[in-house]
Amino acid sequence: MPDQSISRRRLLGTAGATGIALGAAGGAAGYAVASSGSGEGSGGTAAAPLTSLGSEEVMFHGKHQPGITTPMQGHGHLIAFDLVAGAGRKEAAALLRRWSATAERLMAGEAAASDDTDVARDAGPSSLTVTFGFGSTFFSRTGLEKQRPVALDPLPDFSSDHIDQARSNGDLWVQIGANDALVAFHALRAVQTEARGVARVRWQMNGFNRSPGATARPMTARNLMGQIDGTNNPKPTDDDFDQRIFVPTSGDPSWMAGGSYAVVRRIRMLLDDWEKLSQKDQENVIGRRKSDGAPLTGGTETTEPKLEQTDADGNLVIPINAHARITRPDQNGGAAMLRRPFSFHDGFDADGVPDAGLLFICWQADPLRGFVPVQRKLDRGDALSPFIRHESSGLFAVPGGAAKGEYVGQRLLEA
Domain Dyp-type peroxidase C-terminal spans what residues (predicted)? Predict the structure, then answer.
């Protein structure tokens, strides 16, 4: 009999993870090898499990919640809930306790404690992360108005917005990421199921990124416009990273210590219009080369752009309204945010135009000093604006990570 002490999802059998291209016959053979000798009565020796991205595990407990500084995963789900009528602080606390316990189990590659759907039965943790946050309306609905952070004040209106309120905001927000689609869906289903009777789904969005290991070397992600996206992201090695991204221990309110604020925007990319531009025109809109993300003034992706450099005709090499120029921290009073998005594609509209773009998620210690000043400047003259449309928006307070034995948000809900 197999060793029952080993988690059923610890033994990985993903033939594709070997990096060998298999045809239909080869794929079947690979599966047979992985399975050979592992069944009861086979009489053979159990094959060693294949190593893959499925074995990678992210810890649930810690100073910060997972899914903020975790490397971007291949699959993601964003889901917002509103508390049902009659549900208050007590019910919300019980829900966060259940959600936290389930997230801890699933992130360790284990089954849910009860009524597991077995969707991800054969998979490992696959870098699963589950992150929880509170919207502004959560506090009035739970009698916790005095604990609502000032940083959760509504975002200002921007002239380029086309916001659908039905797909914006929410009392509770959950971000799910994983490097396996079934693992991500399994967590989504568990979160939704456990909310029944306490909170109803307000909106839900699905996203994706390039799968880890798809490139010969680690690379900054590309978005659906084909542009490298995230070059100037703050890095955990930066001296001021924690100061910019996380609420300090002495922060106000105290329950947000170690937490961060997430701005979530569904940004539709008008790809048919974008793809009519020549590559040169696309590069001028962004201010960087499409091939490698280097600034138009030369070098590599990480080379500092020479914003004052001009061409033979005296024109700025990086146009004055180029996206890369406008978003630079030194052009925005040092404003910085950690961008951690997913791409999305939700089919086509009646005219055959793709409903696709970016599920923009950015993290900062204070959105009024991070997202807002940058977006205000973009709103006033970004060359990229004619090719994108902000269709939904949300702002959420994401508390610090839970210590062992705690649940996320406990310092707020049991204060």
Answer: 220-402
